[in-house]
Amino acid sequence: MTRTDNGFSATRRLILQGAGAVALVGLGNLPFAPAFAAANDKYPEEAFKQKTEADAIKSLYGKTAEASDKVKMDAPEIAENGAVVPVSVSTTLADVTSISFLVAENPVALVASYKIPAGTMPNVANRIKMAKTSNVIVVVEAGGKLYSATKEVKVTVGGCGG
Amino acid sequence: MTIRRREFLTLAGGAALTGSLPRLARSADSVYDLERFGNARILHITDTHAQLKPVFFREPSVNLGVGSMQGNPPHLVGKAFLDRFGIRPDSADAYAFTCIEFEKGAQRFGKLGGFAHLKTLVDRLRSDVGAGRSLLLDGGDLWQGTGLANVMKGADMVDASNLLGIDAMTGHWEFTYGEKALRSNLERFKGEFLAQNVFLTEEAAFNDAKAFDPASGRVFKPFTIKEIGGRRVAVIGQAFPYVPIAHPKRFTPDWKFGIRDEELQKLVDGLRNNDKVDAVVLLSHNGMDVDLKLASRVTGIDVILGGHTHDAVPQPIAVSNPGGVTLVTNAGSNGKFLAVLDLDIGKGKVANVRYRLLPVFSELLKPDPAMQGLIDKTRAPHAGDWVDKIASADRLLYRRGNFSGSMDQLICDALRSELDTEIALSPGFRWGTTALAGQPLTMEDVLAQTAVTYPETYVATMTGTQIKDVLEDVCDNLFNTDPYYQQGGDMVRLGGLSYACTPAESVGKRISELTLDNGSPLQAAKTYKVAGWASVNEQTGAPVWDVVTKHLKSGKPPNRSAPGVTLKGVEGNPGISKHV
Fold it and tell me: Are B118 and B135 in contact, with CB atoms under 8 Å apart?
């Protein structure tokens, strides 16, 4: 397990950050590239204002993502509770530097963006709030390129059992 | 009753006398004497909904399939169903499997099911193959559906299950009694309760809630391996994937569900590669469309024994997947059918199968005395209150159908009239027995339509937009072209409001022409008083069975107006029948 200098494992700290504050700040030991929010250690304020997932990805990364079966998303087909939908992602891609979660139909598309320090297992689980039935998109930045996976998650008022 | 029974015996014994209706002599031996096949027999019942006694149950005249499901089993009704499965019109099987001339068939062939009759048939089919060569599996919805099961929280059905000899089961409505009652029942159940797709929530796991396997968080045992006919057969349980969505979450706060086909694949792979089983069976409560999709994605399952959607499908559907072929079945509901899967199992491989879905014709089967005694004893303390006649059925009262049924029209009438609302909503449950015209209705009959653990009625104020959104939402649970987004169940029933539905459309565009009984269109921004029951949110109104009983006792004239659903774009769809 990779450990940061404060003694917490990096993945643990990432999960805690994600759960507590959703937005992401860098861990301080990443190469500094000022061009776009995801590579910056500042809060990506503009990205969190975008209405559509395409605009949010563009604001965050400055490029577009291609769908990849190497990005494995685990999300329910039908949410048990739209307020806390468990979505997790893992990937076999190498050199992962960030993982972001977006909900296309939410008022603001970007839900969370996590930075993945070198040597960390690229595996993030979080719960997201969904306003209604929507595509959920996860974007993995690896080797400077963006890869994505998409799944529709239904938020329902409830059906009737057979 | 006596007259009908005599008529039946006459018909059965002296077929030639009927002239225009030539029929073979019918007896238990002619119907249930099966040719021996293979080395292992699995018997499967599902969705009996606690119907300990024989019942009438009319199969649907509307069971539409959309997208790739259109025109394929189980979305065939009436004549299209008979043609597809080669069932002779006017036969006992036509009566059991379809809605065609239901009332006529009911007179000729009588009730189906009943656990004492089922016990006789199960014992016969197990003894036919000899000891150690058979299993009896139940696909869930065994503990709910009657007043007796509701008041006893399913405990009555545990006793009946033990006597029937159920080896393993999975669940759906079983969960609506809550964890405490479920666990207390399972302690007494002599078989195994299997569910690969029920896990502790993170909070429950953190608090060390009880689990079969704390490492994975699996609440129940996922599979069992049984040796039958000298071969090792794995049975995996698949509970209903949407329990906390289709029912109040408060019954299962610590558990999460889902289809979880990736976890299932891992289990199957482990059973094949490590446990070296010879056959893998999935005992599923997914619903047939979900099972058909799952069979195309998960490899290594020989047969999916399915339930939930109450589809009585006489033959398995073969589904190809990258690992080979998986057979998918669905075994009907309310105790009407017993499925017989005969397997010829070789080393590590099922060589061949033979499948039959046998209607349980109560009048052909002598009730098992021990089971009959148990049923009578269990009913005795409760049934006395429920057997008095409240009213008579003014017409054939049935529930099953995608959009409406006369039984739910009656319930909607009761809600509107007793709770004084313009509109009533009633859930599209698929259980609930059928009453023949003129038949006395008792509290027990009312409970057979309403016995749930959340029966409270409510009156709510809803805008036209909210009402339409609810209808769209439920309709998508039924007609989403991707079965993984369906939940089973039928369309919510409406009183006081008619509409048009285009099932092949997408969500938000299926429902149109919403019109109140007085002919005025439902207005988006206007508010309406709506009555309902079985809400997933906690309610405090009188139980719906009391509301319905009060309405029946009031003697108000029955509302015979048409259910008021106009279907669009269903021309040529064999999931709708003119035989109603």
Answer: no
